[in-house]
Each structure stands twice: as C-alpha cells, then as structure tokens.
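Box S2. Input/output pair 1.
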Amino acid sequence: MSEWKSTACILCECNCGIEVQLGGADGRRLVKVRGDEAHPASHGYACEKPSRLDFYQNGPHRLTKPLRRRDDGTFEEIDWETAIREVAGRFAAIRDAHGGESIFYYGGGGQGNHLPAIYGQATRSLLGSVHSANPISQEKTGEFWVATKMVGGYSRGDFEHCEVALFLGKNPWFSHGFPRARLTLREIAKDPARTLIVMDPRRSETAEIADIHLQVKPGGDAFLLAAMIGVIVQEGLVKRDWLAAHADGLEQVLPHFTSLDVAVHAAKSGVPEEQVRSAARRIAAAASVATFEDLGVQMNVHSTLVSYLHKLLVLLTGNFGKKGAEYRPSTLVPQAFNGEEGGTTPVTGAKIIGGLTPCNIVPDEILTDHPKRFRAMLVESGNPAHSIADGLRMREALAALELVVVIDVALTETARLADYVLPVASQFEKAEAVFFNFEFPNNYFFLRKALMPPLPGLFSEAELHARLVEALGALPKDAVEKLRTAWLESRVAFRTKFMELITADARLATVAPVLLYRAIGEFMPEGLAEGAGVWAICQIAAPRIASSLARAGFTGSPPDAADALFDAMLASKSAITFSVDEWEESFARVTTPNRRIQLAIPELFDELDGLASEPERVNTDFPLILSAGERRSFTANTIIRNPEWRKKDRAGALRMHPDDAKRAGVAHGGRVRLSTRRGSAEVSVEISDRMHPGHISLPNGLGLDFPDASGGHVATGVSPNELTRSEDRDRVAGTPWHKHTPARVEAL
C-alpha cells in the first residue's frame, strides 16, 4: 500500500480535501479514502461519497483509443495523429462553409474537472464557436441573472455564523453546497438561539432536523415567498434605514406587496398561513440570515421569479454584507458565475445568460432548416443525450448534425452517437482544479496533482487541445521557444515576453492557455503540467482582488502578487487560502451601474402580480408531480457509471406518499408503470411518508449504460430525462422544470 496522497473529492461542488492510498495489482486502485485534515476549508470532513471514487477511476468503462464511426454505425479504433488531423480538418471545413457560430460547444469542465474549460476555449476561439451550454445553464442561470441585476453577481450565505439558516429546494445533508455541511447543520439545529428553516415539499433529511419545515406544495415556492414578503412589508418589518444607505428601488417594489393577500398566497403554496407568518417574522427579527436556493426551486415553475423573491427577502431584511448573512465572494474566474445578458440564440431567440445557451432549446437550434442552425457539436466532459430534457429529442438532434466529437473517459450515451470519440485521462491522472470558490472571509483554491500517470495511450485535455490548436496552425514553435527561454531567465522576463507575443499576434492571445501549457508545462512540478494555464488566471485576477490577496499574504505589485500566488498553488499539497476579505468587501463588489443594490426587476413584476389569479396546475391525465432527479445518499453525479457499489435500492425506487400508493393499488416494493407526457418507464415503489401527497420522485444519476460480462451494455435504473419535455422551461432563463413534471402511475 502506498503513502497517503492529497487530492479532492469530485462528486459535489464542495470538492472537499481528501487523502487516498493507492493499491491493487497495478497500483492504480483508490483503496482507502479519508478526509484531509490539512485542507483549510473541509478540515478533514468527508461524507460517504468519496469512498466511491474508485468506481469512477477504474473499470471496464474506460476508453484508451480514439474511435471513429464507420458508415455502418460501428466504431473503429484509429491512431491519435489521424484523429487529430481529421477532427481539426472537419471542424475547420464547417467553420469555413457556415461560420464558427454553427459549431456548438457543450461542457467544458465537468464536476471537479474545470481546467479543460480553459484549454477548450483555445480550440473554440480558433473555430469561431461562440455558443455553448453546460449543466449550469439548466440549473443556475436564472439565479445568476437575478443576482447580477440586484447585487452585481453571485452571492452566498455564511452558515457558520448565521442566526437563521434558510434552505429553498435544498437538502444539504446530501447535496452539501458548503464546507462541513452536516456538522454545520447539526450545530445550528442544536443551538436554541439559532433557527433552521427548510422550504421543501419533501420532509428531507435536512427538514427532519429543522425548526421550521415549510412543506410547500410542488410548484408553490413563488406563492410562499411572495406571502412571506407580504408579511414583512405589511407588518412594517422592512429594514428601511439600511436600504436607504445601500439600495435603490424600494418604492417600486413595495406596491406589489402592500395589498398582496397573504392568506390567498399561503393557501396556494400549501403552507398554513400562521406558519408563513411565523417564518417571515423570525427572518425579519434575526440579527443575521443566510440562505441557499438549489435545484428544487431552480428546476421548477416560476424559477427565475423564485430567485428574485428569495433575493428580495434577503435584502428587505438587511441580510447582506455582514457576518452570518449573504456575501459576494472573491473569485479567480468571475465570468464563470455571472448573469449578464449576452444576446440571443440564432434560431429561437432564447436569452443567453452568462454566455450560456439554455440547454432545453439546443434541439430547437439544430432540428430546423434555419440558415443559422447549429451544424456541429463538440462535447467535452458532458453527456447531453442523457442529461438534457427529452433525451429522445436530444438524440434526434445529435443524429442530425454534420459532425459530433466527444471528449470523455467513457463511451457515454452521447459518445455512442458521435462521429469521433477522443478519450482522455481521468481527473486523478492529471492536474486539476475547481473554480467553485465561494467561501468568505477566507477563500480557497486547490491545484491538485495527478495521483498516477494516465493509462497507456491517454493524455489530458490540455495536451489534446494543444494538438488541435497545432493542427489548426495557430501555435508557432518559435513563440513557444521564446517563452520557454524567458521562463528560465526570470518571471519578469517571462511576463514581458508573454505580453509582447500576445500583443503582436492576436491569434496567440486567443490560445493563451495552450501556449502556456506548451511553453512551461514541462517546468511545472511533477503531476502539475496542466496547471500551467492557471498562471494567466492568477495574473488576470490579481489587480481585481489585490487587497484580498494582500491580506492572504500575496503582496507587492499585481504581477508579483500573482506570481507568488501561482507558486504557492504549485508548492502546496492541499488547498491554499488565496484571499482574505472583510465583510464590507461585499458592498465594493456590488457592480450594478450606480454601485448600489437594485431591488426592482421590472421584467418580473407582471409574473409576480399574476400569481394571485394563476389557476391551479391540474392535469387529470397526469395528476401527480414527478421530481425527475432527487438527490439521495447514493447519487453521486453521472460520472460514476458502475452500479456495483450500491447494495441497496440499486435501480433507484420511485418514492411516493402512502395515500398516493393506496390510490394506485401498489404496495412497498411493488412495480408500477410511471408515465409522463413524454414517455414511460417501469420502476419499483418506495412508500414514504416524507413525501408530500401528490408528489413523487426518482433519483438523479441513473439510467447510465455500463459494460456487462458478455461485452454488451446494461442500464441500471431509470434515466429521468427520458420522461421530461424540453418545452417545459422557465420563460426567462429557459431552465427546465425537472422538479415539476406531471405524471401518473399504474400498478403492474
């Protein structure tokens, strides 16, 4: 057995620090996993999920050779030189014939696998690919859009110090979302001076220990939040003095709530009026409130409006920019989490938020004869055939494209439809990092080393994109050599030469990460070659967060501070503290046009005012509401295809309330046909009184193909997106209604 090696879990956004021991016959098995006590955020904390990582790293699903589709639909193995030449040539031909905007990019950094995004940007730039999507564009773009309009960008809650913690459609007991989640939840629940509030149709594991569980009806979230704000406004609980100092738009907002009928909205939400009033008063009276909204509301009806009402509740009660409340974190890559509008898509005219195309409209941008339609697709660390709503229609769209290229570790559902499949190293066979850096006042970054070399025949995405860029003729060898020489001379010489080269040649600027990888990757410490591109990220970030860097010990001019930060990343075995903030920093990061909080978003007022008269969503043919993708103890993202680690409920049962099961005539463990307006599936039933009557759920992450002993493929469980429709989406952000899918069950 080897020594303990530091790395990070890749199965949720927290990316907790872990240590692993390698073993097995080839020394590549992750045989032991434990929390890393040296990690400054997680402090040795780890849930059960990291113990499953060997099922991602090792197994028959791994690919080691490039694949090319034959005319008969089967694949043949080809050498890397052929693969790179043909892929680059075919993409370039489509670009030259139809423009780069016809080449769509999906992915670019799966969970815990973020460095490919910066290297993939180089290839995209050369191809002129301007449209892209990833999982964030079917989850968080509505919240980002709202947050950008109100406070200049994404904000988070300080749960460690808050008096009241409010979770909206969020079960952090399983989905985490902040460091040491279960320990923090227990601390809040045990403290009589603190209050834990959960807004969720299901009595989740978090709701089980909550002081107040607002068991909202499926889809009732907007009604509930509007009612709570109505109470705060009508009872004079608005923090007017604080708002006068920091915010604009109060007088625009108040009329929408002064006459709002709290009783009506509470009834529509399914939560008793007195409980609504009690929760609103507790929030208004608290010295600090931290909140977290997640997919339960972000993949639901009125999702962008819910994000707005959530932020409005926080701001009207003065819970921003102070300990225990909401904050704007420092970031290394701010553009990754912004909600700025950037035009519309070429065919459907859907709003592009944060540079991302709504996932649900991708098939509509392909299955048309529109001259600006997407004609080719590069998929990297993503699986849209499985993860986008209406999987059948997405597969039809992929089949209609002139070229599909997939970069991944496995023959995914999307890869099976590709023209070329380019396999790459796993997350533990290369340097990696994540840019989910949201902590406050101290924020952290972990540039983690490869635990082992790639499997024979494989290399990282950085190397792959470098080869594609070279094949496209945009990486002159003399520029690479000049940078290498300058790096060996001094950092000042390197910075000077780098700026000189990218200023003189605009194409070099667009492929800067690849240029850095080729020039200095070989000079990085062992196992960190792919970290070369992070140097530029540090240089760009340093002037923007100079004071935060200085408090963390990275002083001097911005370029010098950036170099010191980069060197610290390379030297550390665990995460480092890259910034230290003061609470007032959040106000400095309010980047609205006048640098003040904006309470009013007029685009949402009609939808808000229409809630009172909105008819109840009733479908007699499909009377139940399916949550298509519930987080459970065993769900750990779709990168783990091997089901063998799950000993209980391997196929993922359909959860339903006892009353619904009785009406359907099905017992616990019985089989039903689950049908929606898009499809049907057979599934076993788990009867649970934790469910809201009329509310049923399937776990996320199932329905993935996995090689069986005979050489074929089997799928375990139901793929929820086979049952969802792409047209069921938010009117503003285009995010799907995966948590509100009309359904019925029939006993088998």
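Box S3. Input/output pair 2.
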Amino acid sequence: MNFRLLLSAAVLTVAISASAQDNILDMRTNFAIGDVVTVTGVVTSDDNLGSVRYLQDATAGIALYPGADWSAWSATPEIGDSLTVTGEITEYNGLLEVGPNLTVVTFEGAGTVPAPQVILASGMDESLEGELVQVNGVTFPLAGQEIVGNNTYDFTADGETGIIYVRTSNSLMGETLTGCAVDLVGIVSQFSFDGFGGYQLLPRGPQDLIPASGICYTSPVVQSNMTASSFTLSWSTDLASDGVVEYGLTEALGQSIAGGSNSVSHSVDLTGLEAGQIYYARAISTLSSGESAASSIRPYATVSGSSGDIHVYFNGAVDTSVATEEDALSLGTDMNDTVAAWITSAQHTLDVAAYNFNDQTLEDAFNTAAANGVEIRWIYEGQNANIGLGSLDGSIVTHPRTDGEGSGMHNKFIIGDAEYTDDAFVLTGSTNLTTGNLVQDLNNVIIFEDQSLARAYTLEFEEMWGAEGMMPDAANAKFGPDKTWNTPSSFLIGGTEVELYFSPSDGTTNAIREQIEAADSEFAFALLTLTRDDLGEAIATLGESFFVNPVGAIEQVNTTGSEYENLLSAGVQVHQHDISGDLHHKYAIVDFESPAFDPVVITGSHNWSSSAENVNDENTVIVHDARVANLYHQEFRAILISLGVVQSTEDFQGAIQCILYPNPVQDLLSVEWLTNGKPGVLALRDLSGRVVLQQRLQPGVSRVSLQGVASGVYVASIDGRGLPTRLVVE
C-alpha cells in the first residue's frame, strides 16, 4: 500500500511533474498514485513472475508493470539489468507499481543484484514490498504435493507462518513441493483489496528454495490406523536417520516417542490418547552426525465416541431407480425446516459461518436456540446484506469479514455442541442460509455427527473469530490469505474416511485434482462454476482414458475463464444447466457405481475457481463412502433427467444399471443387467481393443465364465456401449 494514501487529500491533489527521485524509497514515500516518476535500479526478477519486473536500489524496491509484455521496448529486462524507468505510479490490490503507463525505459547496462535481506516470516510488510528477501529454515506443510500455477502455499519458519505465490509462468510449476528444510528467497509482494495485509513471497524458480539441511523428507508425514486412543504417523527421508515424533495437546508439544533408528522409512505409533481429540505433532529425523530436520507441526485427530452418522439432504429431485443402500432424500421446499431442526437440536453451543442469511424459518430456529440458553457465535461476509441478522436475538454475537476480497467469507457451515461427544455435529454443503438457496436453487446439505470433525471446524472458526471465547478479537482475526493450515485433514467418522480442507490455506484444489486423477471407473460433477484450468485439464485428461467417461453439469458457462467450452472441445459430456433455479452445487462423485474401487464425494462451499482457492474462506469435505456416493449419484441423475440428457430408466449410455462383481475377478464374473426385459451382449476388450470374450445376457443376474481369459485389465461393454467398466482379471 502506498504510504501517501494516508496523507491528507489536500496533499494528494498537488500536481507533481515527472522528476528524478533520489531513490526508490523517496518515490514510495513522497509521491502519490497518479504521479509520474523516474526511478533507477537493478532488476531482481524475470519471466517466472510474469510480465512484472521488480526493481531495487540501496533503499527500497518497486514493481514495474509494462502491461501485457515488454515488446514496446528495446529488450525484455532480465535479472541483473540496470534500468531507468519513467512512468505513472499505480496500485493493484495493494501492490505499488510504476506502470502500465511507461514513457521511458532505458537500459543502463549490467548492475549488481542486491543480496537478499534475511527476515522472519512476520517481517513481510510495506517497508519491504518489492525487495528481495530470505527466510531461513522454512518447511512446507503441503510438502509432497505437485506445485500448480496461480496458487498459494503456506510455509512455516521459527514458529511463524507465511505464504508463497506461484504463477503459471514459474518454473516451479509441476515440481514437487519440497520436503527439505530450505532457506527461502523471493520478492515481497502484496495482494489485498483494501491495501492492508496480504503480503506474500514470490520465489523466482527452484533456485530460490535452497536446501538448509543435509537430510530431506521424501514424503509427507501421513496419519493412519486411527482409533479412539491411537494413530500412526509415517514418513520417509532421503538418508538413513533416527526418527522421533514430538506431540501434545498444544503446539508446545511436550511428549516424544522414538520411531526407529538408522532407516529411511519411519513409523511411530502414538498410543494412550484421548478420544475425539486433536493432537499436535511433528517428526524429527536425525543423522548419525547429529544434523536433523523437522517437519512442520501439524494437528491430527483421534476417532471420537460420537455416533458417526452422516446425513445427506437435497432440495432438488432425486432418481431412486439407481439407489443401492437407501433412497436419497429430496426435501424440496422443506430444506429450511430440516436445517432448522438441527439448529434447535443444539443444547449448548452453535458456531455459524454463513456467507449470507435471510430465511425466516432459520431466524426463528436460531432465536429459539438462543432462548434455550445456547451460546451462538456468528461470522458473516460484510459485503452481503445478511438482512436476517437484524432479527436475531441480542445474545447472538456476530463478526464480519470486511476486506471486500473476492467473495470473502464464503463458508456455509454450522457447528453444534462441539465439546459434547453425543451431541456434536457439523452441517455443511453448498447452500447459503437464504430462502432462495434453500428453496429455489439446487443445493445439498451434508451433516456429520462427529466430535473430532466439530472440533476441527471450531479451530477454523476461531481463527476467523480471533479468540476462543464468546467475544471476537478483530485485531487477531484471520481471513482469506492470512489464515494458516491449522486443522487436521484426515478423520475416521463412523468407519468412513473423511478428508477436510479449508481455503485458501490447505491446498484444496490439489486435493480435488488428486481425486479426479484417481477415478477408475466413473466421474460426475455438478458445479455452479468451473474456471480453474488445472481442474478442467484433469477432467479432460480423465476423459481420454480408456476406462472413464466423465459427465457433468455447470450453471455458469459464460463466465470469464469458464472451462465449459474447453471440456466440450475435449469430448467431455458436459451440459449447461439452463433451466429455472440455479445449480448451486459444488460437488463431484468418483467411482459411484464401483464399490470395489474407492467411491468418493467432494462437496462444500468451494467453487472450482481461483478466487475460492486463493482468496475466499471456504470449506470442502471429501467423503470416501459408497453409500454417500450413491446418494449424490441419485441427485445427479435427476439433474441429467431434468436437462433431457437421460431418461429415468436409463443410465448415461442407455441401460438402467449394469454391475459387474467381484472386481478384481478370477474365474466367475457376475453381471447384474437390468434392461426392462431386453437382452444384451457383453464384450470384454483388452487394452489394444481386441475382443477376448462375448456372451449374450438375459435381464437379471448372469454368471460369466472367464476360463481362457488371461490375467490383465479389460474394458467391459454391452451392445457396443462402454459402461465404461474397468475389469481386472487375476
């Protein structure tokens, strides 16, 4: 943010003609937005940061923005070039720049790139904006993930946190986020709509992540074997080392347990733990020389003693003809009544994070809860009307996000009775607490009766609240890019594996992409919007596979950056939802007809956009469960029926249902073929497309001998239509 913005309006109106400054600090301090200035310095960045170049002298740094590129000038500036530039001072989301109205760019020859100033993560502020700096001893909580463009990644160092931002132009793209402790070099930048906060470090390629230790983690620390009183942490290193886990109920840790000696593979069982609790832990690996490396301190959850029940509700139609375990619930215009019932079921506490709120039924429910003595805390997005807040009981304490960035506080969740094992629940999904969303637009609600998850959501809530008590602390509250990855990501809820991610800190887009890429048989999506190139490319690539035929529906197909046309061009069966009532979902379903694989549902508040990934406050759950996946499949099929894509008695390729089991199979394959009395011909093709088996099937359940079929992977089809089903013969 330009210091001059804090000066009086009278000063800002003084016209200053183009003039040479003594230094860049003089320009930053004594000139205003719209002034024309001349600055000289050495270039510290290149194309890894896009068209922007950063210029630094002995006093300060500044961003130079030429517009689209540097083609209007004699050369493209490179690191080490000495430049004199004349242009207009502008500001872009808090970042002070010279340009795009550049009038003079003079190459003065080679200069000396300044050595980076060593700072703490907390040292990134306005005084260092545009300068080359270094933070030592950095680790990345998301180590092991592939780096994708236009994304932020949290880092920690000396107990402090910060973020890096990686553009699509950066050579870090496609690299694995390092598990080594590094000395991190980069340029201090800023992205903040109100000009305050939002400081981030811009590394200029892999060379700016300098190994700081002789030992590196070659895998993230992974939690497994979760029970109410124990779990296992596992990791690997590039060199044989002794492993230790330090852990405790706070980030102070306090306890330790050894995890093997002189090995590259480490596994530690933490036992004697409390049920439904969140523990903090880090792994430390030490070489025989005494040199060691530590992972970031991360939270991990034990299994709770709660029921673990998972409830799913839709307000749109469902097609129960494909139900397997139970019929999906379509509440229609009664969605608000059901949500209200959960609200009034709370006995002690309710924490609400709601993007918008105006429904009378829910107003009454919250007021009833308050009258019953329930303590209610409420976070909302300050850009929205939230007219329902004015009708709430005076005991309900509210706290807004007010920076105006993106969609802002875009969460839709309610936490009930988090500290009470038998009563704890989390309500989330795609719906805002508005009558339009609850009654008119297509939305889903998913509810988990689980204390561990409720406590994790509470951690996120209180990071935005800024305090643990009833009263918020605005000075300590963190929203958007200021937040940290402060919650566990893995839970076992009623025997079901559930993953949890909050944006923008937790790498949500990477988690979604991994699930897309993991699809073995089916992939379906129902989205308000899809503008992330990496997710669009992942779906398109999936469609090129021999086994998966993605199908989806999108509401907003004409927004800037929409992947709709790209998906159509790639041959993906994607459909525009253009009928009454917005498709407001943000869900995808993986392998929903293939329980032998890993049926998954992805849902929450997170639109598949860069704003959701990098700016907004969002929550996403990934549920690994065949029952839940089938419930969402029933609703998705109803969407396709409403669009005229399929009929209620047909699947995507023309059959009601075809199930092959077991899969993998050895000698005898069962085929459940339901076609309203019509026979069909089953064909198995190998990966070259050669038919290795054909058999005519009658409706019902048939047994097919695989004698003579070699072990391998095959594609099953009926009457020439790919199901598609990937069949593994052992």
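Caption for Box S3: The longest strand covers residues 231-248. DSSP finds eleven helices and 43 strands in the chain.
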